[in-house]
TrEMBL record:
Protein encoded by which gene: argC
GO cellular component terms listed in the entry, alphabetical order: cytoplasm
Species: Flagellimonas hymeniacidonis
Protein name: N-acetyl-gamma-glutamyl-phosphate reductase
Domain Semialdehyde dehydrogenase NAD-binding as annotated: residue spans: 3-127
Function, as annotated: Catalyzes the NADPH-dependent reduction of N-acetyl-5-glutamyl phosphate to yield N-acetyl-L-glutamate 5-semialdehyde.
Pathway involvement of the protein, from the record: Amino-acid biosynthesis; L-arginine biosynthesis; N(2)-acetyl-L-ornithine from L-glutamate: step 3/4
Keyword list, A-Z: Amino-acid biosynthesis, Arginine biosynthesis, Cytoplasm, NADP, Oxidoreductase
KW DNA damage (keyword) present: no
The keyword Amino-acid biosynthesis belongs to this UniProt entry's keyword annotation: yes
GO biological-process terms attached to the record: L-arginine biosynthetic process
Length: 324
């Protein structure tokens, strides 16, 4: 058994990590650090775990854990690692965007590997630190990487994606307030969302020409999940596109191509990404769906941990969606 520490324990991704790791056969939770709830039961923040765990939040870290997950807002992970020292053996998995871009990947002599297993599996298995991808970034990259690899993404790409309210974290804001969010839909940060940087770096990693990416993020009136649609010029047949995607994801543990049109509920509460392809004239429409908190955050972080420690890829992540 490896010993795990979680920082940012009372937040949404922290809560999902606790839930996943309590069901992991090779990992045990050593501490769940909280700045606001030290000494209180974990269930005081995560009522879904009542009867499942007696863990208490801690105000102290154990520097000798095998791996620590940082479930903190942007900028706070850097600050936390500056203020706290872990043993040389402790691996780090960070869920914020502090270390995702190439220019930020080196911190105090440690290299953070971008933790998208479908792109970087070999590097992840050897990594000591992981920058876990963003949630929109995960859904969009998985929709576009096969085209980028085959040099088929040189035309403009239009992406429209809608996310649930948990994407904004546990803190209440004017646009996550029930009265605003319920029965409502809106876009935000049109064409300028912060995940464009990491998406662009991954697409460029194949060294092929990449067209302009126009990304319109939307806030949906549901709590969990991301449904992303992307379309671009594609001159081949639908069958050739399907083969290309099947081949690219043939070794992927959690990304699957669906012949049928997909919908959000088939992936919510799972670590799956489902992808569907549709052709209209010379346009290829790619739809991808993930759970923002699992495949887009905590589940992908556990997948990365499994790869780093040589565990079976789907250990702790065999989850079925509640579709009906
Ligand atoms: N939500 C998503 O769908 C999603 C998806 C992918 C990536 N992410 C990224 O994952 C990270 C965590 O997201 P989240 O949704 O879990 O956020 P969250 O719900 O806001 O939780 C963050 C937690 O961090 C702790 N915290 C706050 N300020 C801190 C500080 N200065 N120092 C140490 N701890 C502090 C708080 O927990 P305590 O009060 O217990 O200390 C807080 O509940 C973010 O960077 C986010 O962008 C989120």
């Amino acid at each position: 058994m490896i010993k795990v520490g979680i920082i940012g324990g009372s937040g949404y991704t922290g809560g999902e990590l606790i839930r996943l790791l309590l069901n992991h056969s090779q990992a045990s939770i050593d501490f769940v650090y909280s700045t606001t709830r030290a000494g209180k039961p974990v269930t005081s923040a995560h009522q879904d775990l009542l009867g499942v765990t007696d863990l208490l939040f801690s105000g102290e870290i154990n520097p000798d854990v095998d791996v620590v997950f940082l479930c903190l807002g942007h900028g706070n992970s850097t600050q936390f690692l500056e203020d706290n020292t872990f043993s040389k053996q402790t691996k780090v998995i960070d869920l914020s965007n502090d270390f995702r871009l190439n220019k930020d990947a080196k911190f105090n002599g440690t290299m953070f590997v971008y933790g998208l297993p479908e792109l970087n599996k070999t590097a992840i298995t050897k990594a000591v630190a992981i920058a876990n991808p963003g949630c929109f970034a995960t859904a969009i990259q998985l929709a576009l990487l096969p085209l980028a690899k085959e040099d088929l993404l040189s035309n403009d790409v239009h992406v429209n994606a809608v996310t649930g309210s948990t994407g904004a974290g546990v803190g209440l804001s004017s646009t996550s307030h029930f009265s605003w969010r319920n029965n409502n839909v809106s876009w935000y940060k049109p064409f300028t969302h912060q995940h464009l940087g990491e998406i662009g770096e991954s697409l460029a990693s194949f060294k092929n020409a990449i067209g302009e990416l126009y990304f319109l993020p939307n806030r949906g009136n549901f709590t969990r999940g991301i449904l992303a649609t992307a379309y671009t010029t594609f001159e081949g047949s639908l069958e050739s596109a399907q083969k290309l995607y099947q081949d690219f994801y043939s070794e992927a543990a959690f990304t699957h191509i669906s012949d049928e049109p997909i919908h959000l509920k088939q992936v919510v509460n799972t670590n799956q990404c489902h992808i569907h392809l549709h052709q209209h004239k010379n346009q290829l429409l790619i739809t991808s769906a993930i759970d923002n908190l699992i495949k887009g955050a905590s589940g992908q972080a556990v997948h990365n941990m499994n790869l780093m420690f040589g565990f079976t890829e789907n250990e702790g992540l065999q989850l079925k969606a509640g579709v009906f």
